[in-house]
Amino acid sequence: MKIRRLKLLHWALCFLPVWPTIVVAVAEASAPQNSEEVTPAVQQLYAEAKDAQQRGDDTTAIEKYRAMIKLAPHLAAAYNNLGRLYFNDHDYLHASEALKRGLALTPDMPTASAMLGMSYFQLGENEKAEAPLRVALRADPKDDQVEMMLSQLLIHEARFDEAASHLNEFLARSPKNQEAWYLLGKTYLELSEGALRKINEIDPDSVVAHEIAGEIDVSMHNYDLALVEYKKAVDLAPHSPGTHMHMGDAYWNIGKWESAEQEFKTELTNDPNNCLARWKLGNSMLEANDSNEDALTQLNGSIDRCPTLMQARVDRARALVRLGRQPEALPDLLTAEKDSPREPTIHFLLAAVYRAQGKTAEAQKEMVTYGTLQREASASIAQQANDASAIKSAAH
């Protein structure tokens, strides 16, 4: 009868709802080593602890569990529940001490392992935290709380490859978790910076080093510095595919169409099958109001090689409209509309095509759609500017 009473008490301790975010598995309930320790006094203390918890009086509950442990020092579940109470109270030092003692008595308690690892992490003891966190994650590979904390630990330890792996596992289950996406971005940024440092260590004056430096400048919209870096890359490898493409992109982004044209033409000499360079060459010609026929030739070549490049199709339609060949523009525009129905330019060009065909109602409908989408795009840009301003203000 005493052993049966002992088992019931131990199971009750294990299932006591102290920390609702962690579910206690049945496997954690096992008989303690010394059945003689569970006396009526111990059972009375357990009842009082449970009552205190139900009343939200964790201080009294902690006192009762500590008293229980003095009378029953081998009751692992008592240490587990005491550790949970300390953990919930953010008393990570005492939580780790209690949980460690409980696990020494009964190692197969994944919930206790999880809390022990988290307590060590909160105390800054990463070396101690990793092992119990991994034990808990092996017991439940879908424990989001444990996987996130292990990921943070790995980031603190600059073990970014492992951190990225765990964060990707987490995000496969919780794709809308913003904190995880932030941590993953931070992790990839660290990996990227490490790779860049390695590139510069190998040869800071290499083509790759200058191209990467230029890309970083572009990401900060510092196109003047980007052009300096790209020029160095071009001087080092003038006949290498990609070097003139970078230069052309930089000129294209700041609207220097003639310079962009020249770079894209040179890129196509080095890489004749580059459909992006051919599209941007045709686009630059249109923007610079050069020959529409020449622009059309380049855009035809781009689409022949990359038929899914919708930007080239829209630009080809624009060239055809300028040349008065509106009916020929319609197939490209309808294909592009299907792919990107909210792109305002497509509807503006469709309106021009329908107007030329005498389809007044269709033209008016497209212009209404164009106006609506254009206003939405302007509002979105304004909102982004406001958000950026708010972020800057908060940072200051």
Structure description:
- The protein has 396 residues and is mainly α.
- The protein has a domain of 122 residues: Alpha Horseshoe (Serine Threonine Protein Phosphatase 5, Tetratricopeptide repeat), CATH 1.25.40.10.
- Helix content is 77%, strand content 0%.
- It contains 20 helices and no strands.
- Helix 3 packs antiparallel against helix 4.
- The chain is elongated, with a radius of gyration of 33 Å.
Order of helices and strands: HHHHHHHHHHHHHHHHHHHH
CATH classification, class level of the domain at 2-123 = Mainly Alpha
CATH topology of the domain at 2-123: Serine Threonine Protein Phosphatase 5, Tetratricopeptide repeat
β-strand amount = under 5%
CATH superfamily of the domain at 2-123, please? Tetratricopeptide repeat domain
Mean pLDDT: 87
Annotated CATH architecture of the domain at 2-123: Alpha Horseshoe
- Cα radius of gyration in angstroms: 33 Å
Helix content: over 70%
Pick out the low-confidence regions: 1-34
- What spatial form do the alpha-carbon principal axes imply? elongated
Task: Name the structural class.
Answer: mainly alpha
Distance between the termini: 68 Å
How many DSSP helices? Answer: 20
